[in-house]
Amino acid sequence: MKITILVLILASAAAWAIQNSPATPSQEQAKEKHLKNIRQLTSGGENAEAYFDFQGKRLIYQSTHPPYTCDQMFIRDLGSGDEKLVSTGKGRTTCGYFLPDGQHVIYSSTHLASDRCPPRPGYERGYVWPIYKDYDIFKADLEGHIVKRLTQLDGYDAEATIRPDGKRIVFTSVRDGDLEIYSMNLDGSGVRRLTHEPGYDGGAFYSPDSKRIVYRASRPQEGELVRDRLLLKEGLVQPTQLEIYVMDADGSNKRQVTHNGAANFAPFFHPSGQKILFSSNMNDLTGRHFDLYLIHLDGTGLEQITFSNTFDAFPMFSPDGKQLVFASNRASNQPGETNVFLADWVE
Predict the structure, then answer these.
(1) Rounded to a whole number, what is the distance in angstroms from the first to the last CA of the chain?
(2) Whole-prediction pTM value?
(3) DSSP classification of residue 260
(4) At 40, is the secondary structure helix, strand, or coil?
(5) Which residues pair with 67 in a beta bridge?
(6) How far is CA 85 from CA 53, 67, 249, 279, in A?
(7) Closest by alpha carbon to 255, among 222, 219, 292, 229?
(8) Which of helix, strand or coil describes residue 192?
(9) CATH no. of 2-345
(10) Where are the beta strands (DSSP E) in 196-269?
């Protein structure tokens, strides 16, 4: 028992030190003029897709670290640094988000199909993302108890986020044969399809005023479309060419923002609602070098935000617009290690 207590004390001290110590910047990272006081919140494993609660005091994020062999959902209190599991610990989870009441979360999970982690895809077809058919969206309390299953249909249902006014959920589903964006009420009712174009539409977030949606999308040509549909039947997506799009919250008035032919993803609205922050490999189309970029809704004014020469993605502004959370391979101790970072935003 004393050893256990000592381990817990040391772990807590290490976590506190990580949270309250700035990451050492490289020469390139010194160019990151919009980011100040960068703090590394996690250490070790794969940690990503960290999103604020509606009060800006906690984060929910997915993490793979012992004893878990694939992603589970965790909540971190930004004041105390306390972390706890809020998923079942079974299957694989993704895309967690707080509900407005602060007492519940939503996330996607495969645990109904199996307690085990679903297999990772090979890369015989190149770089691919798995689209697990057993993902469904669940509502859970902060103790990890499932309160309700929000999606009931067979096939992939994931990538759920919530409107800032707390009235609707936007998510991605393959229920109609292609990866499209839908919205629904917080209880899973009132499902509406928002996109209808061939290709992958997903990763959607609402604007601060809840009137618009930003998302990533592929628009394959005829020959590529045949390939993509064959991949989708195998539960795979090849995300090598994704552009950023914006539409009204009802699915109307769609317009393309980026036109660079790169893998652009993880878009999020700037607090002004007039710009978009997103991740892209536009400066390294053959590699895994992703940085964060800021762009106006009309596609002008592109500005590079991070310069880590590695992988920076999944940005989200705090509700008050003063902080930015993102995932990065910077300062990693092992190949492929991804951690969550928090920074003050300098306008």
Answers:
(1) 49
(2) 0.90
(3) S
(4) strand
(5) none
(6) 16, 12, 32, 27
(7) 219
(8) strand
(9) 2.120.10.30
(10) 201-206, 212-217, 236-237, 243-248, 255-256, 264-269
Please give the average pLDDT of every successive group of 10 residues along the chain, which has 347 residues: 31 38 62 96 95 98 95 97 96 98 98 96 84 97 97 96 97 97 98 97 98 97 89 92 97 98 97 98 85 98 94 97 97 88 97
Burial of 251 (0-12, 13-18, 19+ CB in 10 A): middle
Cis upstream peptide for 67 (omega within 30°): yes
Q: Can you read off the two tokens belonging to residue 156?
A: 């992939």
Could you tell me the two tokens for 73?
């959902």
118, 124, 129, 134: CA torsion to nearest 10: -30
Residues recorded for the chain: 347
Report the distance separating Cα 157 and Cα 136, nearest Å.
5
Amino acid at 70: C
> What are the φ and ψ backbone dihedral angles of 27, each rounded to 5 degrees?
-65, -40
The residue with tokens 């109609």 is: 176
